[in-house]
Amino acid sequence: MRMYDIIEKKRDGGALTDKEIAFFVNGYVAGDIPDYQASALLMAIYLRGMDQDETLSLTMRMLHSGDVVDLSSLGGVTVDKHSTGGVGDKTSLAVVPLLAAMDPGHVFVAKMSGRGLGHTGGTLDKLESIPGLSTQVERDDFLRIVREHGGAIISQTGNLVPADKLIYALRDVTATVGSIPLIASSIMSKKLASGSDCILLDVKVGSGAFMKTVPQAVELAQTMVTIGRGAGRRVRALVTNMDRPLGRAIGNSLEVIEVARMLQGRGPADLEHECLMLAGELMEMTGRMGAAAARDRARELIENGGAFDKLCEIVRAQGGDPAYLRDTALFEAAPIQHRVLAPCDGYICRIDTEQVGIASAQLGAGRLAKGDAIDYSAGIELLANYGDPVRCGQPVAILHTSREDLLVQALATFNAALTFGTDEPPAEPLLFASVD
Ligand code: URA
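^ thats the input. predicted complex w/ uracil below
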């Protein structure tokens, strides 16, 4: 078999066989296929697409390029959730303790998360803003924490889907990220390798997401659900709104503080609503509780402090200091806090959410390149969100940063991301579609 022929076949719109896909994935991981040929194939896939069989083959070949986690020793049902990436999306930090507290000894959340890059935040960076907390946990310790506490969130271990690490890095520099079969195989190979029985996918759509339109997002959701089912897992996807940041906090410790407040019943309504929805769906997938009953139970756990205590317990088990969650004033605040004022009376009628994420990264909260250091205290506190009425001169946001020199560019980016108008914009749903 020759890589040249595989590229030519896909370039001309042909469907690749499982053997051809295996030849590419195994050869690329082994270093036998050079970047220029892999790039050419990725661009051909980007332009010509892949059918369901090809996408499933690509996913399974990537999945088996490295280790696969075995969670069977935990006993009960294992669950995982994954967001395709957004701005202010801190739901994992709340959904993991909610699920872990809901049905102890029967439902376990063994979650492996990623870091933020570009405009999207990463769960690991947010968690690591809690002093002492480690996300680099050995496999046996991970299983022990999950068994004892019902959940944990750690970094993907060394040899999990090495094919994705290599292919994603190449896609990132060859303008081939935005392809449904490539995104679906990248996400699903990692989710399947992480070993959970039930996988809930939160597919974000809108100005702050990879998928800009609902039909595109539904197609991605359907592709991933079909892959999951083909691999014998219970998979469901929700298509949710990312045309506005979720909640009011963007940035690492700011988002942890918001979650701590939400789990004590003091969180923004949109964030609480989405977390209850995700928790309800996941519990229903386990077969141990209906979605409505699970949402009621989650609400109860917020009201009686059970969910917040569980978050503190998991944080302590991973070496973090839960005192920071109980008294969030302990988090180091950014020395510069700049208020942004509304330029006129009216409403916030559009938010370019990707640009808000970029402004947060420019303040120091994110990485503009892999390996950049993060300022955990940096970010954006929204005092008003999409659809809110504002008066001229009213503060609509506070930009947090440790460096005066970063503020000018971030402020320009943030200001350009908000559109004010005199008419109240239409209310937008949080949920667009459910796919299973
Ligand atoms: N997230 C991933 O893990 N992979 C993609 O291709 C896109 C988003």
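The chain has a mean pLDDT of 95.
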